[in-house]
Each structure stands twice: as structure tokens, then as C-alpha cells.
Amino acid sequence: MLKLIIATAACAALCSSVAHADIARGAYIARAADCASCHTNASNGKDLGPMYTGGRAMKTPLGTIFSTNITPDKATGIGAYSLKDFDRAVRDGVAKDGHHLYPAMPYPSFARMSDADIKDLYDYFLHGVKPVKSDPPKTHLPFPFNMRWAIMFWNWLFKPHHRFQPDPKHDAVWNRGAYLVEGPGHCGACHSPRGLAYQERGTRASDRLFLTGGTQEYWHAPSLRGNVRTGLGSWTESGLMQFFRTGHAQGRAAFGAMSEVVEKSTQYLNDADRLAVARYLKSLASGPQAFAAPPYHTQDQQEWPGAGLFAQDCAGCHGDRGQGKDAPALAGNPAVMSQDPSSVIHMVLKGGHTPQTGGEAKIMPGFETQLTDQEVARVATYVRQGWGNQAPSVSAGKVRAIRQKIHDEPLWVKPHRTADAAAR
Q: Is this model's pTM higher than 0.90 or not?
């Protein structure tokens, strides 16, 4: 009897340790997949509620989509989900009750995840996350987008139907990076262009438009391919690894939604995974050049329209030649030279903050109330075409359109003005 008791206790201890290991792996995968960013309501870098309780408002061309509660609360969360239910939701985009999820949930990327990672992720959410009773706002899109049954046809056309398979032409490090980027990391959800049906125009390395840049919620996520001017051509592996860890590297810094990605996801990757992602991204060839670079201006840059505004409001932090001082460099910055100027306009209007990963985040004030559409267009063009930068000019009409769109954002996602901006 004593031997039986000891054996039973040992078995229980072993089972417990295995369960804890599964939960720990699941927690790591949840961070790699950045589940917290979308499923936690937040504004201006501050969480407005407990993690994973949903309520985040995501602006899409279809309308505003609210994220759901994914804590294990049985009434308002996923506590009643079986592993099969969970798998179907994460990799197929179908909820337990059978309704289709909108592709704002990146299940087209998660479809490539392994069975083992899905199992560990399930163990984490069901046994490692505290259940919270929270019923976030429901998504109500206008006709015809409210007909969720039609999404099954979208899935048939655009969702990948195969799990990730290692490429034998590459080593294990590259394949691990490919898996993280194309699968749980879902980098293409922001950094790949979208088609008319809101589908990603490329979901893996062999696709021509994969990671060539995309615009979401009035921010433009730049290309992650090898373009020197608009992509990662000038980045080093070590620079990318530092960027994933801190959000700062090579005189540049994360901004917009990427600040939150660094804070809640990439800073927690281990060194091996950061190296794998960096190596995979650096292996990607340059994407198609989407615009002809304007000729570099040779006349005195101080005479350009926008030069005075830059000297007055921007040079103190970014340097009089865009070289960077207390703020990231603008000269030679791929994010500044993207074809789509949305991010530059958005930053000038609303400001932003760098990631807070151990140090104090740097805050850029917004100039929405101080500058006219024409003034914003001039300073944005000055930045995009100065100091050797080459990118298309910015029109006042483009500024006006983005100003109106971000002005119409609901209060729960609109960043509050910083004290510095309010004092200006």
C-alpha cells in the first residue's frame, strides 16, 4: 500500500510538472503571437482593463471590429471551449457556436501553426490565465459585411489550408524564423498589402508581395523585405535583434502599433528566436519597387517649403539634418520613405510614443491643432525628400483625409493629448 501511495504521488507530481511545462510553453507562444495587444483594451499605450478581456476596437475597411474576451470565464470567455473548439477558432476562424470570425483575427496566419503549439496555447489560456467575467461590445457591421456566413467563401479563396512545412533548402534557424513570422507572429497581417477583399496579398516567403508593406488603422507598416530605401536592406541581424528586444536600434525606433508589439510580444522572445526571425527577414529579396523615386534636391534645403516648420517644431529632437538627437533619425529611415505617407502624417498630427522596455518611453507630441493640412503636407514632404531621402510628395488632400479618419475614431481608441502637446 505504501509503495502504491508513493507511486501515485510521484505520478501526480510528474503529471503536474508536465502540465506546468505545457502552460509555460503556451504562455511563450501567446507572447510570440501577441494575443494581448488585440484582446486587451488599451489607449495611448495604457491598458484599460485586465489582459485578454477584449474590447479593443479595430478600425477596418469593413467597419469597427471589437475583440473578444479570451479568458477562461465560462459565461463571457472561452472557459467552455474544448481543445477542438479552440483549435477551430484559432486556425480556422470559427467560434464554438459556429459563427465565422472576421479576418481581423489573424487566423490565416495561425492556420500554419503546429498542433503542439495549439495544444500548449490552449493549456495556457484554460489553466494559466485568470478567468474574468467581461462582456465587451459586440461587433455590428453594416450590410453586407454583417452576413458572417459569407466568410466561408472568403476562407475558401484566401485562407492557407496547409500547416507550415520546413523548407529543406534552408537550415533549422531559417525555418524557425519562417515559422514564427508566417505563423504565430502573423507579421503579414500588418506588413503585407491587402486586396479588395481585405485578403493579404501573400502569406509566405515565396509570395511576391508578402511583407512589402501594408496600411492598417491609418498607419503604414513598412516593408520587411530587402529594399535598401524602404525595407530592411540597411539593417543588420544584430540590429534587428536589438530592435525586437528594445524597440530601438540603428538610430530608429518603433512607433504606432509596433510600439505595442515590442512591449507585449517581441521583447519576450528568447535570443534564439530573435536571431531566427532576423535571419529569415534578412533573407527576403527586395520587393517590387512601387514608385519612382523623385530626384534628390540639390538646392539649399533650408529654402524648401516646410523647412521653417521643421526647424521650429522638429529639429530640436530629430536634428537639423534629420540625423536624430533625442528622437530617432529621419534621414535614411525606411519608414519615412514608404510609398504610403500615412504613418508620417499620423505621427505629425497625433504624435506617439516609443516602446517602454525597461527605460522611459519617449513621447512625440501631436500638432493636430497647431498645423493646417497644407503645413502638415509641407513638413511631411520636407522630411520625405530631405537629406538624401527619396519619396513622393504629400498632398494637403491626403492629410485632410487622414485627419478626418483619425478624428472620427471612438473615444476608447483615441490617444489623449500629452501634457507637452496641450501646453503648445
A: no
